[in-house]
Amino acid sequence: MRLIATDLDGTLLDSASAVTPRTRRALDAARAHGVHVVPVTARQPIGLRAIAAEAGFTDWALCGNGAYATNLFDGRLLFAEELPPETIRALAEALRASIPGLLFASVREGGETFVAEHGYAEIADYADHKRHPHSMGGVPIDDVLAAPTLKLVIRHPELAPTVLFERLQELELAGFEATLSGAPFVEVMAEGVTKATGLARLCEHLGVSQSDVVAFGDALNDVEMLRWAGHGVAMSGSADVVLDAADEVAASNDDDGVARVIERMLAQA
């Protein structure tokens, strides 16, 4: 084990979105053994900063479901894969034609800029994006779709994200990758972008082989990463598609599942 790649919400963090003392000790022990500990998340940097001190994250992180790698110490970007405006415009127009009332937001500029459509903030909570809705503002849909985006967010005031995701899968369009993270919206990245592709690029940069990666996750957006890693660990209670992608099922995030696996692996090293 040379690198730990861990999802955050529902995986590393408990139900209160906190890092437990046991989990922090396990992460510190791994780092003391020279193991890279990398958060791999749908969150943007603003959401990572909220828990970075608790988890001891001070180095590379993968954000936006693998769309970009950012250094939490100095803000450097290793890479960033963006969706072009023409792709997100075609996608939005096709979806809006069949589902009235959709709302969109765009993540830009290394994850630091969040551009939301008029009305988006009214149905958002702080927990959705780790930013207060009153800070989101609101712009016309054309402005949301006018620039390249690291992640396009699609949500509806009433329809569940799974419904939107299924409708999106039915569209005869290409050029994007869509997934669900457990948040109340669908997340769309550039074509081919997943947590696995981002992790592969970061591992190449760090000189870590695929077989030396242990990955933890609990949601649909973790599936590719769990399959790619040398050892994929799903959290107890995950959906069947996530469990099937993993080599092992850990205890739940509220029972220090990640810490338990790390402790065992370090003891066996």
TrEMBL record:
Q: Identify the CDD domains for this entry.
A: HAD_Pase
Organism field: Microbacterium hydrocarbonoxydans
What PROSITE patterns does the record tag this protein with?
A: COF_2
Q: Name one GO molecular function term.
A: sugar-phosphatase activity
Keyword Hydrolase in the entry? The reply is yes
- Keywords, ordered alphabetically: Hydrolase
Family matches, as InterPro entries = Cof (IPR000150), HAD-like_sf (IPR036412), HAD-SF_hydro_IIB (IPR006379), HAD_sf (IPR023214)
Q: Which NCBIfam families match?
A: Cof-subfamily (TIGR00099), HAD-SF-IIB (TIGR01484)
Top-level class of the enzyme under EC nomenclature: hydrolase
Q: What is this protein called?
A: Sugar phosphatase YidA
Taxonomic lineage from the root: Bacteria, Bacillati, Actinomycetota, Actinomycetes, Micrococcales
EC number of this enzyme: 3.1.3.23
Q: Name one GO cellular component term.
A: cytosol
Keyword Hydrolase present in the record's keywords: the answer is: yes
